[in-house]
Amino acid sequence: MTTLSQNKLRFAPSPTGYLHIGNARTLILNYIFAKSLQGDLILRIDDTDKERSKEKFYDSIIEDMTWLNIDILDIKRQSEKTDQYKKIRDILIDKGKLYPCFETDEELNKIRKLNLSRGLPPIYNRASLSLSSKEIEEFKSQGKKPYWRYRLNHEDVTWSDLIRGNQTIDCSTFSDPVLIRADGSFLYTLPSVIDDIDMKITHVLRGEDHVSNTATQIQLFDELNAEIPSFGHHSLMVHKDGSRMSKRTGSMSLRDIRDAGIEAITLVNYCARIGTSDAVEAYQDTSDLIKNYDLSKISRSPARYSYEEIELLNKKILQNKTFASVKTDLSKLGINDEIAEKFWNIIRSNINSISESQKWWDIINKDIRSDLELEDSNFFSIAYDSLPQEPWDDTTWLSWTSEVSKKTSRKGRELYLPLRLAITGENSGPELASFLLLLGRGKVTERLEFHIK
Ligand code: GLU
């Protein structure tokens, strides 16, 4: 046996639906952990289920990973490796480790019930293991096709889980798992091991719904004389009410989150830290998360998903985004003239998504007066007359509003709100001292004049 040197991890989704936030967490944990080990990540597509696997879901996985800026070493598709799986299948059959079974679901149910009534665990009794070759041929001649179970060694399997610590599973408490269906197709368990061996995977990091598969898989690694990778099983992500995430229950997909204007880096930050003993941070760069990465901080209890938390985090991320990092996105919205940088620095604390910049850009450039009906013509008249001449600077707002306050005896909200409404059409928004400068005197006078009868 050779020692594996290069650290390699894999993310192994089935293309049977759009990736949801729980899948994204597995992906991001794998990526950050791989990078923290100076290793690589491989994308393995678990598409042995021909019925449910769809090309459009494969495409969307690639799209999601590109959006998240996750670089991968390679892509492998299980559907392209059936010949290799068949070779290993035959070796395991020859060794008597895979054995043909013919029991129907009904018959299996009966066995389970019988065991339970006798106070025994409801596991498969290995009846098919003692079928003679004559009996097997007879079944086949009746048109019955066998499915194949793996003969587990009835012993304890132990491993030191990267997240859960020492684990021991007694394999005599399980039914021998079915690895091959009656139509000859492979269930996930065996191809996963063959691929992990083939791709020289050093660490398998996945959801804790796979803990019991791990016992079988460790036996398979041993049987195939391969080095056993390190395993880590993270708790699953659940909805607020504790229910499980699933592609089928319409959990929010990554593409929905992306379309809602959440930044990729927000999601990376969120998934890296949610369900750990560390606070979720608003890092602008993944490298900050990779530094000091520690899997043991992942909690054993489920991570509770909160979209509101993602939205808040996204706001924080946007507040600190430099103009350079959003220039291209702004340009796509048509925000690309010489005030674009100033504009961004002023509005970035007042948006929930980059696309919301458009609203503030329109407030500067479009006619916002039409649907506003503000009373108090006299107040606007005074404001109009007090507006300083250009050039304007950071002090203009203060000197203007002090003057208006003196002349009208208005203060606070009474003073500022009508001005804000007249100038922007909104009752909240960016700091007016700065926003005023983006508008310039011409637009401000026009907007005030509109309310003077
Ligand atoms: N396709 C499996 C899943 O999505 C992969 C599990 C594994 O990482 O081994 O659950």
UniProtKB/TrEMBL annotation:
Domain named Aminoacyl-tRNA synthetase class I anticodon-binding: residues: 389-450
Compartment(s) of residence: Cytoplasm
GO MF annotations in UniProt: ATP binding; glutamate-tRNA ligase activity; tRNA binding
Domain called Glutamyl/glutaminyl-tRNA synthetase class Ib catalytic: residue spans: 9-309
GO biological process, one term: glutamyl-tRNA aminoacylation
EC number(s) from the headed UniProt entry: 6.1.1.17
Function: Catalyzes the attachment of glutamate to tRNA(Glu) in a two-step reaction: glutamate is first activated by ATP to form Glu-AMP and then transferred to the acceptor end of tRNA(Glu).
NCBIfam families according to UniProt: gltX_bact (TIGR00464)
Family as reported in the entry's similarity comment: Belongs to the class-I aminoacyl-tRNA synthetase family. Glutamate--tRNA ligase type 1 subfamily.
Name of the protein described by the UniProt record: Glutamate--tRNA ligase
Native source species: PS1 clade bacterium
Lineage, broadest ranks: Bacteria, Pseudomonadati, Pseudomonadota, Alphaproteobacteria, PS1 clade
